[in-house]
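Example record

One chain of 156 residues, shown exactly as stored in the release files.
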Amino acid sequence: MISTPLALASRIRYLTADEDTYALHQFAGYALLAAIAVRLLAGMAAPAAGPWRLPRPGIKAAIGWLSVRRGRHPLFAWLAAALLAGLGLAAATGALADAVTWFEDPHEAIAEASLWVIFAHIAFVGFMYGGKRLLNRAAAWLAEARLPVPSRRNAR
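Predicted structure tokens for this chain:
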């Protein structure tokens, strides 16, 4: 699966972003750039209904999903596109910073911003696959417990 090399290279490039481990940081950045290129090529060659197809986020799909709330949540496509764009831009500016030094500051800013997209992706996927069940269990527990509501007389 292509998401594993993306995640691994992204983690390594972030953890090695200092002067002592620059060679590993550079290697991880190029590996990330290669993994994104492979993902984009696979997405362009994939059939329309295939799982490798590139995400196609759209406003109409999001509005349509909100009315029926069935099928795949449109935020999956938006976050996938944001991840590919953010990490790809961070890797590309990092590669450019090897040749043109003034790309170092934009590279660092884009890499830091992409970290927030990664956190949003992790939180969203975690909520969609586990958080809903946890909320349903908590609501059932609260309904079952029937906690006493304090009366006005006891509040004085």
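Notes: DSSP finds six helices and no strands in the chain.
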